[in-house]
Amino acid sequence: MQRKCLNAWISDDEEEGRHFATSGLKQGEAYTMSGSLPFYQRRSRHYDHGYRSKETASTLSQYQSSSRYAAGGSSSSSSTWNRGLNLSSHLGLEESGLSPALKRAKPTYLAVDKENQIIGYVVPIFRNSSDFAAGLSDSDGPRVRDTAAYMARRELFTTGLEMERSELASRREAVRESANRISFNKRIHEHGEHFKRMNQDSLMHPPEFVIKPRSHTVWEKQCVRLHCTVNGWPDPRVVWYKNNVAIDPLATPGKYKVESRYNVHLLEINRCDFDDTAQYRVSAMNATGEQSAFASVVVKRFKGEVDEYLPSPRHGPVSEYGITFKTHIVDNFGVSFGREGETMSLGCTVVIYPALHRYKPEIQWYRDDVLLSPSKWYQMHWSGDRATLTLTHLNKEDEGLYTLRVTTKSGYETYSAYVFVRDADAEVEGAPGAPLDVRCLDANKDYIIVNWKQPAVDGGESILGYFVDRCEVGTTHWIQCNDTPVKFARFPVTGLVEGRSYMFRVRAVNKSGMSHPSRVSEPVAAMDPADRARMRGTSAPWTGQIIVTEEEPAESVVPGRPLELQVTEATKNYVVLSWKPPGGKGLEGVMYYVEKCVSGTDTWQRVNTEIPVKSPRFALFDLSEGKSYCFRVRCCNSAGVGEPSDPTEATTVGDKLDIPSAPGKVVPTRNTDTSVVVSWEASQNVTDLVGYYIECSVVGSNTWEPCNNKPVKATRFICHGLMTGETYVFRVRAVNAAGISQFSPESEPVEVKAAIASPAPPFGISVLECVRDSMVLAWKQPNFIGGSDITGYFVDYREVVDGVPGKWHEANIKAISERAYRVSELKENKKYQFQVRAANIAGVGIPSLPSDTFLCEEWTIAVPGPPHDLQVRDLRSDSLVLLWKPPVYQGRNPVTGFYVDMKELEAPQEAWREVNKDATEKKFIKIKNLKEGESYVFRVRAQNQAGVGKISEVTEPVSAVTKAGTKEIVVDVDDDGVISLNFECGDMTQDSKFVWSKNYEDLTETTRLTQETKGNKSKMIFNNLGEEDVGIYSCLVTHTDGASSSFSLTDEELKKLLEISHEHKFPVIPLKSQLAVEMMEKGRVRFWLQAENMSPNGKIDYTFNDHPLSQGEKYKMNFDKNTGVIEMIMESLTPEDEGTFTFQLQDGKATNQSSLVLIDSVFKQLQKESEFQRKEWVRKQGPHFIEYLSYELTAECCVFLKCKVGNMKKDTSVLWYKDGHQIKADESLGFTEGVLKLEIAQISKKDAGVYEVILQDDRGKDSSKLNLTDQGFKDLMNEVFSYIANSSTPLKITSTDEGIRLYTFVNFYNDLLQVTWHYKDSAIAFSDRITSGVVGEQLWLQINEPTEKNMGKYAIEFNDGKGGLRRTVELSGQAFDDAFAEFQRLKAAAVAEKNRARVAGGLPDVVTIQEGKALNLTCNISGNPLPEVTWLKNSREITSDEHCILKFESGKFSSFTITAVNTSDTGKYSIYVKNKYGTESADFTVSVFIPEEAGGKKK
Question: Is 455 exposed, middle or buried (0-12, 13-18, 19+ CB in 10 A)?
Fold first, then answer.
């Protein structure tokens, strides 16, 4: 293949024009960066080819000598382009170009800074031609002159050389103007310097620290920045010192960084370690003096993992707001433990001060210093004051150090804690844990190499290997990629479809079974990296060259030999080959065949016969482990198969990567009460180390548990979640892709408890007393004591002369235990500074900050000095106890009392207020009525006869909050009557101790009290409690966050405790119930009582009249130990049993007794009851009555006589009697479910009598009687009456033609029912006008011909023998009017009905008569007045004649007579009567027949 490559350089003119168009300089700054060197002498891309001809060199020399042309022709160019577009090019100011008047090139409009770095784009201002021409110069004259000169030059210089000459002249003029400007600025600067020298005394001043460096306390591997701001003239020289040794950043590159900008000086200490704990001093010096400032850096060790790679914080005020934010992370998460598959949330409350509305800081979460982004695995939430990270589905990949980073404009704050993820429970017992961190290392068209990490848990059996599964993206179907497990933690997956994306997961297997699958990998596409990059849209950068290639057609060209074939990876399961495509033609559609050959033979075997390889990489499987192979590759395309490549060197099939060697010595170190720092020696000569697994075991258990489930690469790890006080041993294994190493040697045993460190510096140094040559100092205990009691303090002092401190001197060689010390051998009227160091068994801590400067002069004031050593005890949400020590300096008179002041922390100084109005002689006080959650500070003043003295140091802020788990002192009295005070603390450490005191002073009288401590509980026992023990007892637990409590033993409490103690010394068995008696069946008598809390070993004695009773036929004794019931049962009572029964109880030393007296009437009644119960028992042996005969009233007002019987048989006879006469068995008798019934329907007087039921069979006889005579019958009927009364309806009003009727309905009426009608609460006297009666179930009261006098309240009263029932109605007002109107209407209707015309009887419906016969019909007529009578035939009126005679006689009778009927008389006849009240008619039909016709019909 021939290739023509042309380096097409852009022509000189084009390049120069394009460059100038993109490199216009700002006005007044042309070539100031280039100095005075001419542009053509500076190196540029054009230097080697733009001016290489002799002709050009000659022309340049002429330009240099032509001053006239340069002076006249450069002005236009400089002025014109200085006012033109302000553009800069990334090619830099050192490159030059030609005037754009020659040729306009396309500008790039890039803006650059002074260092030629692209900083943005410049948008040009486009103008029209006239505006652009007008803007080229400041005046029209020079512009016209320059234009004319330019036109002349254009006519003269027609060649490129002449045009270059013109441009060169204009550029020289621009350089000259720039040089003049620089000279002018230099003269101004020199003038200012001269003025300063002339007025040096008024301007010079010594260095002054505007902002001093601040002390820091950090963890190991963090960065520290110390800032300070210094003013002074001349500018001071700043030097940093560490422990008075100057810091040289060049001596330790990368450790220190020193910067000074704009009077702000910085010392940065990178990756702090424990040796960086020191005092740092910054010294500023100039000709007028020197000033120093100090800051301490404390580096903590082994207190948790830190984020060492996070960016450094920004300090200083926020430019946007002009304020500085202070960020605090509180309520944070601790070391957390989870299990695979669970959900975990990590959260912190973020407090930012000052709080700005809607201000949101930048919240970032990191794991192992890697920034996390929201995904399906991580959900992040910010609620305005709380940041939360939710791990939606825990996997071992999620294990690590999590860091919350809160960034504001003033800097950032971080908080970190470790998260441990344990394996989920295996589906099969003994199966290994799931692999983790599955990744795809190499992806191409033919295969993808999958890599993973081995699990820490193998299930107790060695892992046999791993199975790799794949799943095509978009589906849920997983396919196993390997038939046999692979031990190597890397595997090439083949058989993929080019261009498709896949996810992978891995499972581990051992003899017990298969593990859970790992978390799936990220999706990866099966394609070559070049194709993948092309799909992502990447492109190569511009190189400045245009390469033109030509490809000849590749048809029928066999490809060449592949190049650089090599074995990139070899294991016992597979070998990976890679090569480069051949050079030359024929690469279109090229594929590859791979061949192998056993080393030492010449037989080559093609591996991929069926499917050629498309990419220049290939993985071979099914090779024999231990054999050596050579490999080669052939190219092929449509033209054929090419020559093979050079074979590889012989490769032996096997793992080239060895399993790591075991780590070295393991050293555990105490850290906290639940964690241990484990460090070890790294494995030697290990390749591709993945990390280490750490295991721990409680000494003697032989059970090993993993400390981490994700490998760590460091050789130090903090193992959390250990049991406090237990002793552990540790071992470590190394991991790489080849496998897991052997265990390291076991470590030495270590007990889990908090590590001990030297104390932090004390603080708050103050003077308590001062004499001529000594001063008494006081200070406050360090906030951190290092996990061990402070053994003493060391005091140093130094003299300060004219503000310059001298050297430190030791005030005491032997440690002092008190927090007050007299420093002697001082000089009177001299000034001193002091520092204090605390010491414990770990060593002496760093000194405190120097105190204020104190003058050593004798105090002569009359009032006392300040109290000191203020301490807070018994802190609760509403109260606390403040302790103090009296002043060392008493004044002229002894101290007589103390005043305590308090205020809220944020309150101003004016808010101090007295706690006690009257001075207290005690050295403690309980302060009450605090506001929960509020922070307070306190101070104390002492007084004597001269007045109130100096104020003490203010306490540290105290927040009124009851800490979780706080307990109070509990008073206890044991079974022996021993009184004790008990206190329990849940926050104790290994070194914590209980310290008891009385009235907040050390206990001196030890004979009266005995202290016992066990675990987290302490007991103070009173040996002989008395009045001498009255007081306030308190208990303080050391090495805690102030855990304490107090108890006030008053005189009343003392009396109460002594009574309880006496009861415990001489105990009494408590009784739930005293001795009682009850009757049992068969007439047996039971004596019993119930004791409380009586042990099974208790003893009971039974006595009668002081004589002991024993178990026998008459007495049966029993003691139920579970319920405490004690009983004695007697079969019967005889007269000899009258007397006193006693139960005597004894349980250990506790005793009690209870007696019951049975004499006189009490005994006789009990004996009678016993006999009755015995007879009852005998009766119940045969058929008997369970419930005796009684009656029951049903809803239908029927009476049932019933009784319940028991112990019945089939042959048991039941007989009913009334008044001695047997009642026949008929439907009235019933017997269901053991109940005998006799129904009495509609009871009346005849049903009164004595009823009896007799039960009898061969076992016995029983009877029951019910007397329903006299009062018994009366009571029964009263119940019937009560039921009837309750069933009555409300009294209603209706009208009749006679008057008004009041009525009510009842469900059932009995003739014996007695009712009374009332009118206006008086019984009604009945008469003809007012009557009452009963119709069916209706009871009514009739008022005939009512008048207004009958208006009022009416009532009906039912008498039931108890109180009766009354129904009332108001007959008045509208109710009366309506009823009366209705009565009138009905009355009128009745009169009309009575007097209207009527036809009554005498007329048949049909009359059949023989022709010729006479017909006579008569009917009765009534009506008042006398009605008119009309007869009709076929609806036509007829009159009386000879044939039809009509008569109406006596006003009562009307007759109808036909003398001789004939057939014409057949028809329908009617009589119609009428008067003023009404009419009525009667119809009849007459049928006449002829006898012959009738006879014919009969025949």
Answer: buried
Axis-axis angle for helices 67-82, 54-65 (nearest 10): 90
3-state helix, strand, coil in the chain (%, to 5): 15, 40, 45
Determine if the pTM surpasses 0.70.
Answer: no
Instruction: Assess contact for 87 and 124: CB atoms under 8 A.
Output: yes
Q: What is the strand order of the sheet 1478-1489 is part of?
A: 1406-1410, 1478-1489, 1467-1475, 1428-1433, 1436-1437
Of 270, 271, 196, residue with least CA distance to 235:
196
How many C-alpha atoms does 1334 have within 13 Å on its Cβ side? 14
In whole angstroms, how far apart are CA 412 and each of 273, 346, 350, 389, 409?
A: 21, 19, 12, 18, 8
- What span, in angstroms and rounded, lies between the C-alpha atoms of 714 and 716? 5
1450 Ramachandran zone, left/alpha/beta (phi>0; psi -120 to 50): left
**What's the chain's Rg over C-alpha atoms?**
62
For 37-56, what is each residue's pLDDT tens digit?
Answer: 443 334 333 334 333 344 44
**Residue in this structure with the two tokens 């479809």, named with its chain if needed:** 497
Evaluate the CA torsion angle 1061, 1067, 1068, 1072 in order and state its sign. Answer: positive
Contact in structure between 845 and 837 (CB atoms under 8 Å)? yes
Ramachandran angles phi, psi of 657, nearest 5°: -90, 120
- 111 vs 101: CA distance, rounded Å: 22
Inter-CA distances, 1499 with 1410, 1490, 1491, 1496, Å:
18, 15, 12, 5
Give the helix/strand (H/E) hosting 326: strand 326-330
Q: Which of 332, 391, 325 is nearest to 354 (CA)?
A: 325
User: How far apart, in whole angstroms, are the C-alpha atoms of residue 200 and residue 197?
Assistant: 5
CA quadruple 852, 853, 856, 861: dihedral positive or negative? negative
- Cβ contacts of 528 within 8 Å, gap of 6 or more: 444, 445, 615
Q: Are 914 and 939 in contact (CB under 8 A)?
A: no
Integer angstrom CA distances of residue 273 from 278, 609, 718: 11, 62, 17
Task: Provide the pairing of β-strand 1428-1433 with 792-801.
Answer: unpaired
What is the DSSP annotation of 84-120?
S-----TT-TT-----TTT--PPP--EEE-TTS-EEE
**Across the 1499 residues of the chain, what is the mean pLDDT of every consecutive 10-residue run?**
36 39 37 37 38 41 42 38 36 36 40 47 39 40 46 50 72 82 81 61 76 87 89 88 87 85 87 86 88 89 45 43 78 91 92 81 91 91 91 92 90 91 90 93 84 90 93 92 89 87 94 93 84 55 40 62 85 83 70 88 82 80 83 86 88 80 91 89 89 94 92 93 92 91 93 84 92 92 84 94 91 90 92 94 88 92 92 93 93 94 93 93 93 94 93 93 91 90 87 89 84 91 90 90 91 91 85 90 90 86 92 90 90 89 89 91 88 82 87 84 87 87 62 78 87 88 89 86 88 90 88 87 87 88 90 89 86 90 88 85 86 89 88 89 87 87 90 89 90 54
1064 in Cβ contact with 972 (< 8 Å): no
- Tokens, residue 1094: 């009586």
Three-state SS letters, 338-387: EECCCCEEEEEEEEEECCCCCCCCEEEEEECCEECCCCCCEEEEECCCEE
String of DSSP letters for 1001-1025: EE----SSEEEEEETTEEEEEESS-
Q: How many CB atoms lie within 10 A of CB 507?
A: 20
Tell me how far apart the alpha carbons of residues 1040 and 673 are, in angstroms, rounded to a whole number: 13
Q: Which helix (H) or strand (E) holds 70?
A: helix 67-82
Q: Do residues 465 and 486 make contact, with C-beta atoms less than 8 angstroms apart?
A: yes
- Report phi then psi at 1133, rounded to 5: -110, 135
> How many Å apart are CA 352 and CA 407, to the nearest integer?
10
CB-facing half-sphere around the CA of 657: CA atoms within 13 A: 23
